[in-house]
């Protein structure tokens, strides 16, 4: 029997790609602008975005009702998650809607089967994969259509695992850094939890894993510059925010000189196909 779950998504800070909005008309335009903003910065995205911990990937796969052999990385971007999935020894296929992002993925991972496609119209046969992974992207989907397509391509007992890298706000300086970037360029974007109904899935679970990203002040600012809120900001607003963030990092003992670990939490939500 199909089961329906109210799935609490993560309250991701706006600068980390939250697309949850409050005014339907303006919000649809903002959502579309942000969702399509990454391709022009594909090389920077590939260079600066963090990967995902192996423990998070294995936990996601462990939700399946059978061994996982074939994996789809959906909305794969430049392959940050794809590379980690390949390293687990599974057969991985990447699907990505943006041609520039996909070109960067195939440049970095030429042996991975990859093709253009959307979550709402996945170019794979029915029942062809044991797991679908979505890194930092589920909130961009037309969710009813995407869940129907994910259900279609999964084998019975297969698992959907959605991942988000999130600043570890238990670390005081990382929390303040995130707060500095959550300002008026993100107006109209809400941080509250969103709830979804997923037909045909059961065993919803959510957990998180400690993670980190080795950065300098310059490379951390380059990382946040690839987040959609800053990509669509007016140049003057973007420059002002980045200057404020740099000035703050210059005052923090952990970040004021040389390399440091940017503390993250990797949040994973998984659901098993009925």
UniProtKB/TrEMBL annotation:
Keyword DNA-binding assigned: no
Pfam families given in the database record: Methyltransf_11
Occurrences of domain Methyltransferase type (ranges): 72-161
Domain of life of the organism encoding this protein: Bacteria
GO biological process: methylation
InterPro entries, per the entry: Diverse_substrate_MTase (IPR051052), Methyltransf_11 (IPR013216), SAM-dependent_MTases_sf (IPR029063)
Alphabetical keyword list: Methyltransferase, Transferase
GO molecular function: S-adenosylmethionine-dependent methyltransferase activity
UniProt record similarity statement: Belongs to the methyltransferase superfamily.
Protein known as: Methyltransferase family protein
């Amino acid at each position: 029997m199909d089961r329906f779950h109210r799935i609490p998504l993560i309250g991701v800070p706006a600068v980390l790609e939250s697309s949850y909005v409050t005014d339907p008309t303006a919000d649809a335009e903002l959502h579309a602008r942000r969702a399509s903003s990454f391709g022009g910065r594909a090389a920077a995205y590939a260079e600066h975005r963090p990967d995902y911990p192996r423990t998070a990937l294995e936990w996601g796969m462990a939700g399946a009702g059978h061994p996982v052999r074939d994996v789809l990385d959906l909305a794969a971007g430049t392959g940050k998650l794809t590379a980690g999935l390949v390293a687990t020894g599974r057969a991985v296929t990447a699907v990505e809607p943006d041609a520039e992002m996909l070109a960067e993925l195939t440049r970095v991972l030429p042996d991975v089967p990859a093709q253009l496609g959307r979550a709402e119209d996945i170019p794979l046969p029915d029942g062809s994969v044991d797991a679908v992974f979505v890194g930092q992207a589920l909130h961009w989907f037309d969710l009813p259509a995407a869940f129907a397509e994910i259900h279609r391509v999964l084998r019975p007992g297969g698992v959907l695992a959605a991942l988000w890298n999130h600043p570890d706000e238990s670390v005081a300086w990382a929390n303040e850094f995130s707060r500095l970037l959550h300002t008026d360029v993100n107006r109209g974007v809400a941080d509250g939890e969103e709830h979804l109904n997923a037909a045909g899935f059961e065993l919803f679970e959510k957990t998180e894993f400690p993670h980190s990203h080795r950065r300098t002040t310059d490379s951390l600012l380059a990382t946040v510059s690839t987040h959609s809120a800053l990509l669509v900001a007016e140049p003057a607003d973007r420059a002002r925010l980045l200057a404020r963030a740099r000035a703050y990092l210059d005052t923090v003992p952990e970040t004021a000189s040389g390399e440091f670990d940017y503390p993250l939490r990797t949040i994973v939500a998984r659901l098993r196909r009925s």
